[in-house]
Design a protein that fits this description.
Length: 164
């Protein structure tokens, strides 16, 4: 049998590493640019573009991490007010299906944005980094979130109780 739990744990560690590395790298680059700007009076223009890309990747990966940890904002007050387990399960199913659909849209339209940026050959003006690289995270996180919703749906149909 395929070790799906081990794969999921490895995926979680990879997501956390990307997010932590991105946030740390972004903070170091910001610090370096502040020192360059205010102490040496020579800001580094390339760093500005790299900071935006690195921090955007780190933050957007956080969306998938939060989904996996079930730490997104939810309507606990409404959910807790519902006493019927059948209605709660119906709400869970609806939320998982809408989430999966939304994640699929993110991945699909993210892919279209990447393809357009690649086709037009647009680059950042100072570093000349291709813009499609920055947009690629949208596709990756859309796919990652879709994968998480599929796992939620499989657990749902297997009858495993989800902890909130």
């Amino acid at each position: 049998m395929f070790p799906i739990k081990k794969l999921g744990d490895s995926f979680n560690r990879m997501e956390n590493a990307v997010s932590i590395f991105g946030m740390c790298a972004g903070l170091v680059l910001i610090f370096v640019n502040v020192v360059a700007r205010y102490i040496f009076l020579k800001p580094i223009a390339e760093i500005e573009e790299i900071i935006v890309i690195v921090l955007a990747w780190a933050i957007i990966v956080g969306f998938s991490i939060d989904l996996g940890d079930k730490s997104h904002i939810c309507m606990d007050v409404v959910y807790d007010a519902i006493k019927s387990e059948k209605v709660r399960r119906g709400l869970d199913l609806f939320a998982y299906l809408v989430g999966a659909l939304y994640s699929g849209f993110i991945a699909f339209y993210g892919y279209q944005a990447v393809a357009l940026q690649h086709k037009t050959g647009r680059v950042y003006p100072v570093t000349e980094i291709p813009r499609w690289i920055a947009y690629l995270i949208i596709v990756l996180v859309g796919v990652a979130m879709l994968g998480r919703y599929i796992v939620f749906l499989v657990k749902f149909f297997k009858g495993k109780k989800e902890e909130k």
